[in-house]
């Protein structure tokens, strides 16, 4: 099968188009013929080697964390899916590889694709949808009437998280440029801060939840917009000790993680707010809860560009440029 392979870590490393063996199918997995995949900043960060400490992939390997496609084979222990099912998924860590014509995904991480959208739209959802769900529903337990600050509202996670937060009944603030203000407003943002003109930390206060996706400086400012008892959930780091426990990290990694997050955790304690790092996990059951929100029109996929499969490197570069509104998708089939 055709795939895009990472041969060695590095910011300047291009993915190599190659013919590679089909993935080995385990007993509890389905083999998906990839119709579309999407590019996430996570792919660029993995390629750059930024997650080697917590995700030590051995090169060469195939990148890609989103898939929409058709089931073409099932393992002997699979009960929920059959040949021909149209599905979507975020494969588990160490089983990624959707920049390819076929990918094997654990049954528990797969869901039937929403009926009312295309393969390209479906491929745009899993990683950002699960990230927003795990941050706002699972960790923050966001409730009706609460206030949430979602950074970078026009990005992949932001466009989904704004819509989910509105569905949960929250008041939503976000940052974006003036050119994207109409987009985030149409998704449900109530308070829009033009980050090129205004300092969000001067305009926002008394928030219950912050979803942080930016750098360390922005994270520290964001802690100050929370009310006492509020919580900041960061998808961009630094990892915290609880995360190290969850992934059963070696003792040395636990100490490194503790040191990396020490300053942020100390500041959070001083302000009487919570800090948690989220590295989203694959989950078919959560995708099944997201599906009706897509089918009812409560949440709509936001796609900036669709690239052909042969332009996978260009798609990755476009995501890294930071200019994308919503998701960047690769049409494989």
TrEMBL record:
Q: Which residues form the Enoyl reductase (ER) domain?
A: 10-330
The molecule here is called Zinc-binding alcohol dehydrogenase
Q: Which GO terms describe its molecular function?
A: oxidoreductase activity
Q: Which organism is it from?
A: Hydrogenophaga taeniospiralis CCUG 15921
Segments forming a coiled coil: none
**Pfam families assigned to the protein according to its UniProt record, in alphabetical order:** ADH_N (PF08240), ADH_zinc_N_2 (PF13602)
